[in-house]
């Protein structure tokens, strides 16, 4: 009790003027608050990025539901078993979360706001009941638990913000706490030493490279390399691969009605799947390659029957490819080729 | 005999080219025939208005034009913020025709500028392809580009936008570059710079040229193809081109300050270093040269490093590293989706899926690889350039569907080359073997060698005549290098000629292949005509619909704009969502608050906020902006889907982005956007809802919205601060007038009087500080 009396000295005068009952309640609460904060700070100092790893037990301790807290918690829900699901980007997002935490710690170092916000993660296997408590059934998920909020009233970050990675999270932190996160410092792709080393290598190798170039002995002087490259870029682009990269489309998806079946072709023109794109890109490219083969290579063959055989194959393949693309386009977009014939203006 | 053949060939090509021009022009007239001679969509109306101003007031006034009809009260400096190429072109055409006493209206000239320039573009494509692979390929490519759907979509009659002239400028600049490269003539180099200047005047896409040509130069240097011709083709372009480009106000110092242009300067330095090396190599003995190389290389490296360091410092000092968002999203395709939602959200900037290629370049997608391969056999400076062009443009088109337009000429050139080469081989096979077959059947007893010889003769004849034609066309311009180059060409061509004599394919197979290729070509024509007639011709200002009782025409937009023009004061301000800003200024000649040049987000957000607010605050906002009339577009009666109610969430979002008291969730019921009885009260009370659905129930008694396919939520209500002044025939445009403040005083309590007084005083005050939201 003596200790509590000591601490009560820290409490502002206003509180002392309140009724005795509430006074004692205040003492008890403030004691746990300061304890909690110091526990959190020590936990935070242990991790390099300042993100605290919690489990069911420790979370319940910090989220004493009975009253308000002098701090707020941003909770990142993690699941190790889902880390290999590339479409969820859980490891990346966790890394981004750590970046935000580190940026916040750097920005608020030594300020009173330092202990206002804590960044925590929780893992599904260890703490399933917390997931149930917050009603989290899909990942990624970041939740804000404010000073006066309990698991029921806490707010989840908007799913669309995940696309902006750490910027989205920082905006979320800012909108909820009115505290600036500060500049998010990403570790550069290559460190300074590596850059120096690369520069040195470049400078040293440049004379040799230039000599090679002047002598014309690089693979770049081989037109076949360029030819292959050009055709590949063409194939890559017309297959809509850029669409798949930007939209992060999978190669195929499971059928909604029958999960054991795989769907390779998506119905509807706004979207396409990876395998579908490459298949059609292949069809687009093969016709041109066949035509070039016939015009530029087959003419040099002396044997007539070989020529006949190859031409037969080439014509058949090209015809099939064009027909297939027309069919697929009709199936996908509903556009059938028909002539324009006005019945009247 | 040979000269006669040449002359005949030339006349025939000219005749074919004229036909191609007619084709390119006439296939784009579907919009005029099916609808009428009218300017399309939104941006063209702005260009049209600028052209009108230019023809009326002259070039100097145009250059200094401050437009107070738009972005009220801010205005816009038109002369310094538009690419003037299109306007100047149409203005000159109009002036020229008028001075010939052909009194065409400005509108007519504007409507037909795009088709005329597509004819020019197909001729430019012919020239470019001819430089690369000869006349046959050129004609085929020109025929293909005359009707490629991707280009038609931007250049139908009435689509009076920058791209209409820019594609011609693009292809023509490339042609002049190749021409200079092939001839080494300074005359063409100068023309090239001028053509580049025209391109800079016309379209922001000029950065594609100023990056592609340096890339090609670098490629030539790296692959050991440096020549003085390359130097002449490149150095004047950079110097003259950059100087000229900075004359265009909208580009100005960007021509030397932004990263889009740095590649050209870097390559400019490199080509000088290389030129020096070649010069020294020519002067010195091989041994001395080796010493010199090390010297020059080290000095050159030092200079390069210094320049690079300066550039890096310059670039690093700017926040976006000197690149504009659009260019960055081309280099790193995932950039836009991460950082710039405005760019990512525009439908033109989406990455295309494979059906887009089939729609926009159709069967050319099949032929391009063959063209690429043909360009490598043999690889020349010119053919390497078109390969580079197709590779970069096809990559860019994969990132943004809009850049399909840049891909289209390249695809046409490549397909033209492929088709021409294929027809060359196949028809030769038929031509040389058919007589043999006929003779064989006619007299089996006759010796084969004689028939064989005749075939040989024939082949040789046709080969040599073809080459002559080629030579004469290729060589004419360069008197200086004529002899030298001719020797080269002949040396190169004499070898394949000997081999080619017997290069034939089986007769029947060739005939089948020719037939299939012609089928492919006709498929292309059918598709293009359909695309031109059905898919890309709707002007979107006049709408039509076919129903069981015949054709319906919806001309409500022009009806509304004409009403505004004739029934309102000249200085009245009209507020509408920004989509209709250009049209209002151009057709109604009234001042608007925001328009399609979305340069000021806050201003747009103010209008968005007003539309999303209840009547009173909305009235206050509009009154503070001196607005007299509010225009809304409503499609609920006729089922026109792109009306303001469907765009309304964007108004809320944009408004809420600047004024946080507008919150999107207030307008959504459980995350769903709805206007029926389940809609939120905020939604049912906002200005946009009230102006759209005012008196709507009187039309059918139920208030059934045919776009949203539901009955509206609030059917009977009165407007307090606005009065309906005009509604068009099909209710597609509704115009409301702001009630004057004094009307609100009558019959109200003292309190409201005083409040209205205060609002009156604020409106007086607002003449000095127009917008209270700032």
Automatic annotation (TrEMBL), chain A:
Primary location group: endoplasmic reticulum
Keywords, sorted A to Z: Endoplasmic reticulum, Membrane, Signal, Transmembrane, Transmembrane helix
Bilayer-spanning residue ranges: 12-30, 195-214, 226-246, 278-299, 305-322
Taxonomy, superkingdom: Eukaryota
Annotated GO CC locations: oligosaccharyltransferase complex
Localization, UniProt: Endoplasmic reticulum membrane
Function: Subunit of the oligosaccharyl transferase (OST) complex that catalyzes the initial transfer of a defined glycan (Glc(3)Man(9)GlcNAc(2) in eukaryotes) from the lipid carrier dolichol-pyrophosphate to an asparagine residue within an Asn-X-Ser/Thr consensus motif in nascent polypeptide chains, the first step in protein N-glycosylation. N-glycosylation occurs cotranslationally and the complex associates with the Sec61 complex at the channel-forming translocon complex that mediates protein translocation across the endoplasmic reticulum (ER). All subunits are required for a maximal enzyme activity.
PANTHER family membership: DOLICHYL-DIPHOSPHOOLIGOSACCHARIDE--PROTEIN GLYCOSYLTRANSFERASE-RELATED (PTHR12692), GH11935P (PTHR12692:SF0)
Family classification: Belongs to the OST3/OST6 family.
The protein's name: Dolichyl-diphosphooligosaccharide--protein glycosyltransferase subunit 3B
Organism annotation: Amborella trichopoda
Automatic annotation (TrEMBL), chain B:
Membrane topology: Multi-pass membrane protein
Biased composition (Basic residues): 743-754
Biased composition (Low complexity): 755-766
Compartment annotation: Endoplasmic reticulum membrane
Main location: endoplasmic reticulum
TM stretches of this protein: 7-27, 77-97, 109-128, 134-152, 164-190, 196-219, 231-256, 262-280, 292-316, 357-377, 384-401, 502-526
Catalytic activity: a di-trans,poly-cis-dolichyl diphosphooligosaccharide + L-asparaginyl-[protein] = N(4)-(oligosaccharide-(1->4)-N-acetyl-beta-D-glucosaminyl-(1->4)-N-acetyl-beta-D-glucosaminyl)-L-asparaginyl-[protein] + a di-trans,poly-cis-dolichyl diphosphate + H(+)
Region (Disordered): 441-494, 743-774
Pathway(s) where this gene product acts: Protein modification; protein glycosylation
InterPro entries xref list: Oligo_trans_STT3, STT3_N
Domain Oligosaccharyl transferase STT3 N-terminal stretches: 11-414
Top-level taxon of origin: Eukaryota
MF terms in GO: dolichyl-diphosphooligosaccharide-protein glycotransferase activity; metal ion binding
GO cellular component: endoplasmic reticulum membrane
Keywords per UniProt: Endoplasmic reticulum, Glycoprotein, Glycosyltransferase, Magnesium, Manganese, Membrane, Metal-binding, Transferase, Transmembrane, Transmembrane helix
Family to which this protein belongs: Belongs to the STT3 family.
Description of how the protein assembles with itself and partners: Component of the oligosaccharyltransferase (OST) complex.
Protein name: dolichyl-diphosphooligosaccharide--protein glycotransferase
Organism: Amborella trichopoda
């Amino acid at each position: 009790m003596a200790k509590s009396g000591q601490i009560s000295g820290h409490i502002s005068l206003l509180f002392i003027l309140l009724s005795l009952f509430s006074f004692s309640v205040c003492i008890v609460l403030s004691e746990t608050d300061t304890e909690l904060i110091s526990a959190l700070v020590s936990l935070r100092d242990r991790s390099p990025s300042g993100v605290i790893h919690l489990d069911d037990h420790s979370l319940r301790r910090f989220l004493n539901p009975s009253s308000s807290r002098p701090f707020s918690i941003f909770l990142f829900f993690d699941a190790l078993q889902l880390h290999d699901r590339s479409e969820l980007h859980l490891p990346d997002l966790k890394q981004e979360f750590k970046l935000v935490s580190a940026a916040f710690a750097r920005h608020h170092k030594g300020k009173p706001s330092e202990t206002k916000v804590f960044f925590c993660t929780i893992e599904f296997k260890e703490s399933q009941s917390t997931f149930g408590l917050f009603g989290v059934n899909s990942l990624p998920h970041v939740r804000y638990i404010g000073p006066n909020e309990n698991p029921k009233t806490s707010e989840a970050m908007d799913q669309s913000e995940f696309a902006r990675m750490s910027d989205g999270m920082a905006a979320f932190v800012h909108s909820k706490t009115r505290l600036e996160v500060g500049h998010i410092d990403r570790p550069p792709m290559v460190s300074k030493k590596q850059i120096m080393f690369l520069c040195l290598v470049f400078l040293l190798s440049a004379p040799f490279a230039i000599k090679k170039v002047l002598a014309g002995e690089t693979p770049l002087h081989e037109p076949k390399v360029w030819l292959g490259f050009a055709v590949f870029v063409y194939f890559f682009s017309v297959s809509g691969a850029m669409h798949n990269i930007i939209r992060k489309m999978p190669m195929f998806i499971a059928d909604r009605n029958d999960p054991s079946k795989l769907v390779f072709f998506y119905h509807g023109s706004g979207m396409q799947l990876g395998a579908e794109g490459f298949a059609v890109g292949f069809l687009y490219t093969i016709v041109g390659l066949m035509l070039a083969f016939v015009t530029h290579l087959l003419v040099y063959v002396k044997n007539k029957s070989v020529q006949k055989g190859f031409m037969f194959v080439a014509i058949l393949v090209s015809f099939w490819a064009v027909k297939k693309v027309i069919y697929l386009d009709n199936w996908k977009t509903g556009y059938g080729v028909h002539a324009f014939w006005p019945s009247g203006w | 005999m040979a000269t006669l053949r040449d002359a005949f060939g030339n006349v025939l090509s000219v005749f074919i080219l004229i036909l191609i021009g007619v084709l390119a022009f006439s296939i784009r007239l579907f919009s005029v025939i099916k609808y009428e001679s009218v300017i399309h969509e939104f941006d063209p109306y702005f260009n049209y208005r600028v052209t009108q101003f230019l023809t009326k007031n002259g070039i100097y006034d145009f250059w200094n034009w401050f437009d107070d009809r738009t972005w009220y009260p801010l205005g816009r400096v038109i002369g310094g913020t538009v690419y003037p190429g299109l306007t100047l072109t149409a203005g000159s055409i109009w002036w020229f025709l008028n001075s010939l006493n052909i009194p065409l209206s400005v509108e007519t000239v504007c409507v037909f500028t795009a088709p005329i320039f597509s004819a020019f573009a197909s001729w430019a494509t012919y020239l470019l392809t001819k430089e690369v692979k000869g006349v046959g390929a050129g004609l085929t490519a020109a025929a293909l580009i005359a009707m490629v759907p991707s280009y038609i979509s931007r250049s139908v009659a009435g689509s009076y936008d920058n791209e209409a002239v820019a594609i011609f400028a693009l292809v023509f600049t490339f042609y002049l570059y190749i021409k200079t490269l092939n001839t080494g003539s300074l005359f063409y180099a100068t023309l090239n710079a001028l053509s580049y200047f025209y391109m800079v005047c016309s379209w922001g896409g000029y950065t594609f040229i100023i990056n592609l040509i340096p890339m090609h130069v670098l490629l030539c240097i790296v692959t050991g193809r440096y020549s003085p011709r390359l130097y002449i083709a490149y150095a004047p372009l950079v110097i003259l081109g950059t100087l000229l480009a900075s004359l265009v106000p909208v580009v100005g110092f960007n021509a030397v300050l932004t990263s889009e242009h740095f590649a050209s300067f870097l390559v400019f330095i490199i080509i000088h270093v290389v030129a020096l090396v070649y010069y020294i190599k020519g002067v010195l003995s091989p041994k001395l040269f080796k010493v010199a190389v090390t010297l020059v290389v080290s000095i050159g490296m030092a200079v390069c490093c210094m320049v690079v360091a300066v550039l890096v410092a310059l670039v690093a000092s700017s926040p976006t590293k000197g690149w504009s968002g659009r260019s960055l999203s081309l280099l790193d395709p995932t950039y836009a989706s991460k950082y710039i939602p405005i760019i990512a959200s525009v439908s033109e900037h989406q990455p295309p899926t494979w059906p887009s290629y089939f729609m926009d370049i159709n069967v050319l997608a099949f032929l391009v690889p063959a063209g690429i391969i043909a360009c490598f056999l043999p690889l020349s400076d010119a053919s390497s350039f078109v390969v580079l062009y197709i590779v970069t443009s096809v990559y860019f088109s994969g990132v943004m569907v809009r850049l399909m337009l840049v891909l289209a000429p390249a695809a046409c050139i490549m397909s033209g080359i492929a088709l021409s080469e294929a027809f060359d081989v196949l028809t030769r096979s038929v031509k040389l073997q058919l007589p043999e077959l006929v003779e064989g059947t006619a007299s089996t007893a006759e010796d084969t060698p004689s028939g064989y010889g005749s075939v040989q003769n024939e082949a040789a004849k046709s080969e040599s005549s073809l080459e002559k034609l080629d030579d004469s066309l290729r060589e004419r311009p360069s008197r200086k290098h004529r002899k030298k180059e001719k020797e080269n060409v002949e040396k190169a061509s004499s070898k394949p000629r000997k081999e080619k004599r017997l290069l034939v394919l089986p007769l029947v197979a060739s005939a089948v292949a020719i037939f299939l290729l012609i089928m492919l070509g006709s498929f292309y024509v059918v598709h293009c005509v359909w695309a031109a007639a059905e898919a890309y011709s709707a002007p979107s200002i006049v709408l039509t619909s076919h129903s069981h009782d015949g054709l319906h025409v919806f001309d409500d937009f022009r009806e509304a704009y004409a009403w505004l023009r004739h029934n309102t004061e000249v200085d009245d301000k009209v507020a509408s969502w920004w989509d209709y800003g250009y049209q209002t200024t151009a057709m109604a000649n009234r001042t608007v608050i925001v328009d399609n040049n979305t340069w000021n987000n806050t201003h747009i957000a103010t209008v968005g906020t007003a539309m999303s607010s209840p009547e009173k605050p909305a009235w206050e906002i509009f009154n503070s902006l001196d607005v007299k009339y509010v225009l809304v577009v409503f499609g609920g009666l006729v089922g026109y889907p792109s009306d303001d109610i469907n765009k309304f969430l964007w108004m809320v979002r944009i408004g809420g982005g600047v004024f946080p008291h507008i919150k999107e969730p207030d307008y959504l019921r459980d995350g769903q956007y709805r206007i029926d009885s389940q809609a939120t009260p905020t939604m049912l009370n906002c200005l946009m809802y009230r102006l759209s659905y005012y008196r709507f129930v009187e039309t059918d008694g139920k208030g059934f919205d045919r776009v949203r396919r539901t009955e509206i939520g609030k059917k009977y209500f009165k407007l307090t601060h606005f009065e309906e002044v005009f509604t068009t025939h099909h209710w597609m445009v509704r115009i409301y007038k702001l009630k004057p403040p004094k009307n609100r005083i009558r019959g109200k309590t003292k309190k409201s009087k005083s409040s209205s007084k205060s609002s009156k005083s604020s409106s007086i005050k607002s003449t000095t500080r127009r917008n209270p939201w700032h």
